[in-house]
Amino acid sequence: MIRSVTHPQTKASHRAHTRRYQRAWLIMGVVVVVALFFGVSGYFNTVSWPALLEAVLHTTYRLAIAYAIALILGVSIALLVGWSPFADLFFPVFDVLQNIPSFALIPLFIYFLGYTDVMIILFAVSSIVWPILFAILTAIRSAHKDLNDAATIFGAQGLRRIPFYLAPLSLPAILTGSIVGIAIGWESVIGAEIIASAGGFGAFIKNASATGVSEAAIAGMLAILVIVFVVNRVVWAPLLAESSKRYAE
Amino acid sequence: MTLVLSRVSAAFADEEKDVSALKEISFSVTKGGFVSIIGPSGAGKSTLMRVILGLMPHSEGTIVRNFSKSAMVFQNYALFPWLSTLENTAFGLRMQGVPRPERDRIAREKLKEVGLEHLEHHYPNALSGGQRQRVGLARALAISPDLLIMDEPFSNLDTITAEALKADLLKIWRDYGMTILMVNHLIPDTIELSDQVIVMGAHPGHVEKTISIDLPRPRDVRGPQFFKHVDMLTEIVRKVS
After folding, report:
1. What is the dihedral of CA B73, B76, B80, B81, to 10 degrees?
2. pLDDT tens sequence across A144-167
3. Residue B77: what are its φ and ψ, rounded to 5°?
4. Interface with A, mutate which of B16, B79, B125 (most A CBs under 10 A)
5. Which chain B residue shows the shortest CA-CA distance from A164?
């Protein structure tokens, strides 16, 4: 899972995201039709829906907590580093760190934290935090020199620079970083659950596939798709539309 | 004197261009004066503004800053996109800790002076270039500067918009009695506005010539005296570029 996220906050990527969301409606429609067809044909009759629901909710819960921690961590570190005069120094260091494949570190997580929620959550944090951190640092570093000067001249100096200038400046980057981070987060949580058999949706599809019964796995994937789609439509798409409008030149 | 520069040099590596530098810049700006800086690109005009404001260090020479507060108006406006017109205008006051009712009152006053009181809830992305520059001017005026630095404030605006803003700026300058230091790129504008013109040359940036414009105000921009000055300045600028 090596993924270098360089400029997720650019206007072009904003537009790309917006386009992608429009297309998502179409894909979602197809998914729903396929699911209904399967459902009507009796394909899902063997699926244990309570177990699936529990597994999906468990995974979603882990991801939500992991995202919240990664958001706080990523935003604070990025703003502090971006505020300090050492941003250029830290950037290559972070770049090396984020390129360490997180799954290579999973034995360490398991060794120290066991097969627990905490292990899964902290493991996911270690992969979600990077896109958020990089998006913000890139936004701060690439801010127009005049805007920086304006902030300084009109008094956003010292620590006040963070809440009054750097944080609002980074808002679009926090959004795009979050969207990429959560996408990576799903992979990390489910991947870790599969590897560690630590409950949740990952362990659910692992068990479902091991016995050759894949109806449950397919039902589960459809459930995840619906959650991802709803969260994107309800949370991210409106925020993204608003921010790309407001922050456009 | 509001500002005195004596043999000021500065050197730095610019990522985008080559090495820009300022070499032994000397001039002084009278209190309440309108001084323009004109010169080819690469003369370090913007760099000089940043050095004067203390945003960039200078390596040699002395700068006497005999003003209590400076503000700046930018070529590309540099408004904060996340703040409304009113909030942008009140930004400097907010940073000074002025309470909200007071700073909103002052900001509204300044917006009225630049003719934008009806747009206080708009965000920069909903404003035209001319309106944005007026917000930039209102933001600068709000902190009551005694030195106003303007870096090519009209160069992104169309002629009609620029003419209107220029007239308003002259009125504001008369009313406030502040000192204005403006980087300019049009010779007629420079002659119309300034008491004093500093012509800079490039590579490295240096002061080529300082000239006084003592035409009476308000200036007749179609009279022979005006054109004589335009000719004279054109001749000087041609030599350095």
Report:
1. 150
2. 989 999 999 999 999 999 999 999
3. 70, -45
4. B125
5. B95
* Residues contacting residue B95 through CB under 8 Å, at least 6 positions apart: A154, A155, A156, A157, A160, A164
Q: B1-68+173-241: CATH homologous superfamily? A: P-loop containing nucleotide triphosphate hydrolases (3.40.50.300)
H-run or E-run covering B149 = strand B147-151
Instruction: Tell me which residue in A146, A160, A171 faces B76 most closely, judged by beta carbons.
Output: A146
CB contact under 8 A, B94 and A249: no
B233 in Cβ contact with B191 (< 8 Å): yes
Distance between B241 CA and the closest CA of chain A, angstroms? 26
Q: What is the ipTM of this complex?
A: 0.90
* Cβ-nearest to B72 among A153, A165, A245: A153
* pLDDT bucket at A79, cuts 50 / 70 / 90: very high
Please list, in sequence order, all residues whose beta carbon lies within 8 angstroms of the beta carbon of residue B71, skipping any fewer than 6 positions away.
A153, A154, B92, B139, B140, B141, B143, B145, B147, B148, B149
Domains identified in chain A and CATH numbers: 11-39+59-246 (1.10.3720.10)
Alpha carbon distance B5, B53 (integer Å)? 12
Residue A5 has pLDDT above 70, yes or no: no
Phi-psi region of B117 (alpha: psi -120 to 50; beta: other; left: phi over 0): alpha
pTM: 0.85
Cross-chain Cβ contact B50/A160 below 8 Å: no
